[in-house]
Structure formats: C-alpha cells, structure tokens
Amino acid sequence: MKFEKFHLSEDLLRNLEGLGFFRTTDIQYKAIPSILKGEDVLAIAQTGTGKTAAFAIPIVNNIHSNKASKRVLGIKCLVMVPTRELAQQIGDVFNSLAKHTKVKAFALFGGVEQDRQITKLQDGIDILITTPGRMFDLISQGFIHLRSVETLVLDEADHMLDLGFIEDIESIKRKLPHHHQTLFFSATINAEIKKLAYSQVRSNAIRIQISPEDPVSKNVSHFTMSMEMDDKRFFLVEYLKQNPEGKFIIFVRTRVRAERVAKVLERSEIASMTLHGEKDQTDRDEVMKAFRAGKCQILIATDVSARGIDVPNVTHVINYDLPEKPENYVHRIGRTGRGFNKGIAVSFCAPEEKELLKDIEELLGKKIEVLKVSTVDYKAITAEPPKEMSFAEMIEFEENLIAQAKRKKKKK
Question: Where is the Helicase C-terminal domain (predicted)?
C-alpha cells in the first residue's frame, strides 16, 4: 500500500519519498491506521520488518498536525528502549521523518556528559527516545517532565524484560497522564511478554502479529558448523577469507571474548572492530560510524548490541558463541536480511553447545542445515604449547602454528 492512502501531511510524505519509502511493509500497513486514530497497539514483529517506522510515521504526523493548529508545549511522545544504540537508531529515524516538519525529536542515554543533553531538553522537544537510567536521573533533577505525554512507546519490550526494566516501566507509567496512548512492540512473544503487554495497554488494544509461524525473516538462510570450542578461531579466519566481499557481524558472549577474537583476526591480517558494553559511548559511536560507512567490514559484538545495529547491507551474521537464550538468536540474525535484502546466518557449534542449538531449532521450527567448509587441518599439527607460557609467547606460538598449517596446505 502507498503511504498517500493514509492521508499523511504533505511535509511527511515528502520526507518519506526522499528516504525512498513508497510502499508499506506488513507491520506498517497494519499498525499505522490504528496509531493515527489514537488506539493502543500491541505488535509482535520480527526485526527488519520496518516496525520503527510503523510507529514513528504516525507519531510524527499527529504531532506535526497538532502543532500546525495550536501551540503545543512539552514532551508529547516518550519512547523507551533497552540500549543506547537502539535509542540512537530510533532517534535518527524520527529526525529523518521530521526533517521538513515542526516536530523535534531527541535521543537521550547514559555514557555521555549530560550538560548538552539538558540544554537540548530546555530548548524544547516533542519526542523523547531514551533508556531508563539517564531518563530517571534527569527526572529526579527536575529536567524532564512527563505531564504532557500523549503517547508511550515500549520498543524491544522483550529485551527490556530480560534486562530487568519492568519496575522502571511501571514507575514511568505512574508518572504519565491517566489518558494516554500506549504502543507495545516486541520481536518475540511468550507468557511473560503477554503478561507485561496486557498490563500496559488498554483492554481494547489492537493486536498485530506478523509472521507468527516464522520468528525470523524469510530472507535469511541458516547454517551451522560443528567444531571443537578451541578450533573456532581457525574456522572463523578461514570462513572470512573465503568470503572476502562480505559484511559481517560476529556475535560472542563476553567482552573478553570479543577482544580475543579481534586479536586472532589481527594476527591473520584481517581488520575488525569490537562493540561491547565496556566501551565508552564515544568509542561505540565511532565504531558504528566506521561500520556504517564501510571503513570496516567486520564487527565483533556482544548481545548488548544485537538490538541496536541497523546497518545496511550486512551480508553475514556469525554466531561465534551460540546465545544462551534462543530468543537472542532471533535478534542477532535480524541484523542481516533486512528489508528486501538477503542474508546468511552461520552458527559455530561446539559439542558443549548442542543443547543450545536444539533450543534454537525448536524456536525456528526446523533443523538448521549443516555447512561444511574446507579449512586447514590444524589437528594434523602435533605441536603442543608448553604448560606455562606468557601471553606474548602464546601469540608467537599460535602465529607459528598458523604458518605451519599454511605451508602444509600449499604442499597439498
């Protein structure tokens, strides 16, 4: 369906056209009319289906129309999200949509100095996209007031539940006007999410569920590779070399793991960058800027980033470590195959991770195809490292090991 059918403002339609948005996705087609009418909406839609625009378009339109007819003061829409990256991403979407309108949107999150954020708030904004921590700090300091909020959006609500934000959600609810619209968006649904959702939306809320039989995008092909845990780094290097044109996000379980994998790639002369919660916000911003611009084609990330990375043309997601919760698999691989693009998800599975793989397959409702890739036979090298070895010596040992393997492969 074309966006003109929704009778949106001319300014907003011009912005949509400039962004290359001409026809709706399924979630947009089903959600926009209800949101425009002020109805509560409970939407379950997998990542990459255009759900941010599904709520951002009608919100910008309604606020813009109201500002054209009367003077409107205060925050009119509050969007709560679980991570900084997601707040930035959604803030960018709102600002792109509001370019030629009178609507002002602002993304607020921790990890950066708050003085500039306070100045922005005091200048006046209509839409606040925020993570709970920094928002509560500024509410307690008297810089944020929610008495004018007309619409509350809870995005990635399942992840907010995982992170223990349910009390924050309840606290915010008590600070809002009694009569307000609530939009509840989640990529997955289970008993806990249902309970949370129905505690937030009105009883006559519109429920929308996109592709309930398939929790992940049909544009993504799924594969798994079996290997020992200690061999994963070798398989990764070989797979990356066999796919030199790809744009990769590699998911690992911990910050330490991310840095170690980056070191392995560096020793194989493969450039990469890391993204995890221990980096300060300035560094995280620089990493994402470089990855979006294509200055680096390989990003190694922890799950904290799985929901906040909306980068065009990511061709591959590699689960270097399988996620402990199968739902996180959905969010990880949702970074590829977005919109109408195709994507590949490859999961490295060690023997001790087989149960995690079974859980993922159960969630997907199908077996994941086993992928065989030609790689150097590292096990044929019998050299073993000494029992005690410094980190520098270990690096040198591994470099020699790789060099031996390459020479052996050439002889074959």
Answer: 231-379
Residue 215, in any domain of the structure: no
Residues 356, 387 within the same domain: no
Q: In the structure, what pLDDT confidence band is assigned to residue 374 with cuts at 50, 70 and 90?
A: low
Q: 121: which 2 tokens?
A: 């708030």
Report the pLDDT averaged over residues 35-54: 89
The H or E element containing residue 106 is strand 105-108
* Helix/strand/coil for 110: coil
- Supply 170's token pair: 């309840």
* Whole-angstrom distance, CA of residue 307 vs CA of residue 67: 32
Position 69 scores a pLDDT of 60
Q: Strand order of the sheet with strand 248-251?
A: 273-275, 298-301, 248-251, 316-319, 343-349, 220-226, 369-370
Report DSSP state, residue 43.
E
Distances (CA, A) of 218 to 50, 96, 306: 14, 28, 19
CA pair distance 343, 222, nearest whole angstrom: 9
The alpha helices in 243-368, defined as continuous H runs, are 255-267, 281-293, 326-333, 354-364
Residue 55: in which H helix or E strand, if any?
Answer: helix 51-69
410 in a structural domain: yes
Give the side-chain half-sphere CA count within 13 A for 56.
28
Does residue 92 sit in the same domain as residue 228?
A: no
- Tell me 6's DSSP state: G
For 204-261, the pLDDT digits (tens) are 899 998 764 555 667 889 999 999 998 999 999 989 998 999 999 999 999 899 999 9
pLDDT tier at 147, thresholds 50, 70, 90: very high
Number of domains within the chain = 3
Query: In Å, how far are 72, 121, 176 from 148, measured between CA atoms?
Result: 9, 14, 8
pLDDT (0 to 100) of residue 187 = 79
The SS3 call for residue 221 is strand
Q: Which residue has the higher pLDDT, 385 or 313?
A: 313
Alpha-carbon distance of 103 to 77, in angstroms, equals 11
Domain boundary among 209, 230, 262: 209
pLDDT score of 412 more than 80: no
Q: What residues make up the domain containing 229?
A: 220-372
The domain boundary residue, chosen from 157, 190, 209: 209
Strand bridging mode 77-80 / 127-130? parallel
- Both 133 and 254 in one domain: the answer is no
Query: Which pLDDT belongs to residue 391?
Result: 47
pLDDT in the model for residue 37 = 95
